[in-house]
Design brief:
Helix content: 25-40%
Largest sheet: 6 strands, mixed
CATH topology: Rossmann fold
CATH superfamily: Phosphoglycerate mutase-like
CATH class: Alpha Beta
Number of strands: 6
Radius of gyration: 16 Å
Structural class: alpha/beta
């Protein structure tokens, strides 16, 4: 699924939510509904001022609180209504959710290693990465198709969901999605439309580089 092979000059900005307490603890959030810290809220406000300069035409967001609150900061500045969709939630990771990185390595080391090798793994008995892309990418494409020529869609979601969606829209084999790397809190990636489909214009953009905390959450 590469999207429609046209070149209407549209852009999709995929924006990760701000910091949460579980990000700081390197605790896997998945679909657990964790709210932003005060720092995360400040990150969202700062990033929103930058993204508002892109004059987006539409904003869609995961309905989890950390993403919805991040999206709200941009909505205030742009006066756009946010469309929330559960299909943009982070990967459901079953028994991994709520565990720290070290606890996952200790309890599910083989599963973690297989996932890092690029094998299709139901982490903690949850979703495959391809299943996350199956639910999230069509939502992004559907809203992108509604944009005017040259329009911009902002998608507020989660690190893992954004990576899998980018991989799907670029037509990359799922084995290579991990090669895209993670997004820091409140940083974003930009896809632009070309004659042969979507292409990656920016990745993990913000201003100065920041560490990636709690990538898949």
């Amino acid at each position: 699924m590469n999207g429609t092979k046209t070149d209407r000059g549209r852009r999709v900005v995929l924006w990760r939510h701000g910091q949460t307490a579980w990000n700081l603890e390197r605790r896997f959030q998945g679909s657990t509904d964790i709210e932003l810290t005060e720092t995360g809220l400040g990150q969202a406000r700062r990033a929103a001022r930058l993204l508002a300069a892109l004059k987006p035409d539409a904003i869609i967001a995961s309905d989890l609180r950390r993403a919805a609150a991040t999206a709200d900061e941009l909505a205030v500045l742009t006066r756009l209504e946010v469309t929330h969709d559960a299909a943009l939630r982070e990967t459901y990771a079953g028994a991994w959710q709520g565990l720290t990185h070290d606890e996952i390595l200790a309890q599910y080391g083989e599963q973690y290693t297989a996932w890092k090798r690029g094998e299709p793994v139901r982490r903690g008995g949850g979703e495959l990465e391809t299943e996350v892309a199956d639910r999230a990418a069509p939502v992004v494409l559907n809203h992108a198709d509604k944009l005017p020529d040259g329009g911009t869609l902002v998608v507020v979601s989660h690190g893992g969901t954004i990576r899998t969606t980018i991989g799907r829209l670029l037509g990359l084999d799922a084995h290579h999605w991990e090669g895209l790397g993670g997004l820091s809190n409140c940083c974003w990636s930009v896809l632009g439309e070309g004659a042969r489909g979507w292409r990656l214009l920016e990745h993990n953009a913000g201003t100065l580089p920041e560490p990636v905390l709690g990538d898949d959450d």
